[in-house]
Design goal:
Number of strands: 15
Radius of gyration: 20 Å
CATH class of the largest domain: Alpha Beta
Structural class: alpha/beta
Shape: globular
CATH architecture of the largest domain: 3-Layer(aba) Sandwich
CATH superfamily of the largest domain: NAD(P)-binding Rossmann-like Domain
Helix content: 25-40%
Number of domains: 2
Largest sheet: 6 strands, antiparallel
Number of helices: 11
């Protein structure tokens, strides 16, 4: 291997804007130690919301001082390894999900790499994105069968997996989206009721068509969508906050309205937050189940067709994701 250095993306300063916070640095490729792998990354998954919040210093459980590495999930191939590594071979496809996925190469402890069949973008939609959907629905949302489940931002990277998992559990699934292209994807995934909120009023549709309310809501959008969802919860309904993409790149909206318990108390409903780092004990089982569902064609993975190539394209990919245009998972190719 002739390469001596590689490029990675770091946050050089805390800044409200992702683009202004980041810079590309070139660093030497280090030789793997006895129990380490050297991986050439092929693809990285883009988590625009998390990336932006990190760069703004607004992720409470991560207290980072710049400069720090960015990116999470990456998939690539093993190109060198230390003498104590037993379970891997040169050329193996591996997924990694530690902080620092926005890099062309990485040296990592072999225990932190997961072997997969191929280094394809699809596995990055399952790990950790799909894993989050599964754990959020089952552990936090207590998903059952024969219920009404609503997924907001249903054509996004996490949402389109949540739709399929809710369908596999024999539920009636409603998905919200913002374009005909996204509605088409949701139809292909078997979504029972698709609400394009640009052409239909979400609150009106839910009130008219689901007068008994919604049993389980997988909520990724925030703002008015969140308010509408809370208002339409069924008796004993559960709303899981998986994100609030409408506010990631903006200042937090101040609201003045009756407190949440007025909405929840009479319906004995609940609103619960979900973050994967607090549910790590479910990770391995969920990951294995999802890969199995994928490899046996029980779930489909949607990769956004927009091409982002190289480290230089990551700020544009983050911006694209935050603009809500994506259909499926946004991926950067190296």
């Amino acid at each position: 291997m002739n390469l001596k250095t590689y490029k990675k993306l770091i946050a050089k300063q805390i800044n409200q804007d992702f683009k202004s916070a980041v810079e590309i640095v070139e660093i030497p490729i280090s030789k793997p130690a006895a129990s380490e792998l050297l991986i050439q990354n092929k693809f990285a998954g883009v988590n625009g919301g998390f990336d932006t919040l990190l760069c703004r210093g607004e992720v409470p459980y991560v207290n980072l001082m710049p400069p720090f590495d960015l990116g999470v999930e990456a998939v690539g191939e093993v190109i060198a390894m230390g003498e104590n590594v037993q379970d891997f071979q040169i050329g193996d496809a591996v997924v990694t999900t530690i902080r620092g996925g926005y890099r062309e190469y990485q040296v990592i402890d072999a225990n932190l790499a997961l072997k997969v069949q191929q280094a394809t973008p699809e596995v990055l939609t399952l790990i950790p994105t799909g894993v989050s959907a599964l754990v959020a629905l089952e552990q936090v949302g207590e998903m059952k069968s024969n219920e009404v489940v609503l997924v907001t931002a249903a054509a996004g990277g996490t949402g389109h997996i949540a739709v399929q998992l809710a369908k596999l559990a024999n539920n009636h699934v409603i998905g919200t989206c913002s374009s005909e292209a996204k509605a088409k994807l949701l139809r292909e995934l078997g979504c029972d009721r698709i609400i394009n909120y640009r052409t239909e009023n979400l609150n009106q549709v839910l009130k008219q068509e689901y007068p008994n309310g919604i049993n389980l809501i997988f909520e990724c959008v925030g703002k008015d969508v969140f308010d509408t969802c809370v208002e339409n919860l069924a008796v004993r309904g559960r709303l899981v906050v998986v994100g609030f993409i409408s506010e990631y790149a903006k200042n937090i909206e101040q609201i003045t309205q009756p407190r949440l318990y007025h909405q929840l108390f009479w319906k004995v409903a609940s609103v619960r937050g979900f973050l994967m780092p607090h549910y790590q004990e479910y990770m391995v089982k969920a990951r294995d189940r999802l890969l199995n569902l994928f490899y046996t064609d029980k779930i489909k993975v949607a990769i956004d067709p927009t091409q982002f190539n190289g480290i230089e394209s990551i700020p544009a990919a983050v911006e694209y994701l935050l603009s809500g245009q994506n259909c499926g998972k946004v991926i950067v190719r190296f």
